[in-house]
Amino acid sequence: AALVAFAIILLLGPATIRYLHRLKFGQHVRDQGPARHQKKSGTPTMGGVLIILAVTVSSLLMSESHTALPYALFVAVGYGLIGLIDDFIIVMTKRSLGLRARQKLLGQILVALVLAFHVLSEPRLGSCLLIPFQGTFVHLPSWLFLVVATTTVVGSANAVNITDGLDGLAAGATAVAMTVYAIVAYTFGSGELAVFAAAVAGAC
Length: 204
Prior knowledge:
By secondary structure, this protein is mainly α. About 65% of the residues lie in helices and about 5% in strands. The protein has helices spanning about 1-20, 50-60, 70-95, 100-120, 140-160, 170-185, 190-204, and strands at about 130, 135-140.
């Protein structure tokens, strides 16, 4: 899955970048940042579309089952669409800010809630948390599980904002993290989520 996603990026990446250059879909750098970052103004944005495409195609092709995978892809594509809208506004308005923070947060929370409700409704999943390295489970009230699950998804997505914007830093950190998640998912018997995580690592 990692190799397929990597190959898709290699094959489609150069043409996509040239096309975005032609459309003048360039990043607008904030004036408040370091002066050396100003030369990066005009760097093609919306490259995340290519990553989402590679992850989706690779995951669907390489996964032997599609039970949990659609929900992982739902979150990835949902968050990707939020990012796409954000980038599109930046490009169209020629400013460094797109969606307002509360607008992005609302969209992220809604997507995360769909996943949380799905997990809660699955008998084999439910509202219990596995304590790492101990093998014990903690059963949470449904409302608390929804809060914990939604906060975890939204918090993890926004943690990338700290590194995003510096060349390759977000993608590099994500590739390492998703490799670990692939190993964890495989260890716990979720092959399709291991495939998904590996596809994200390969795409990054």
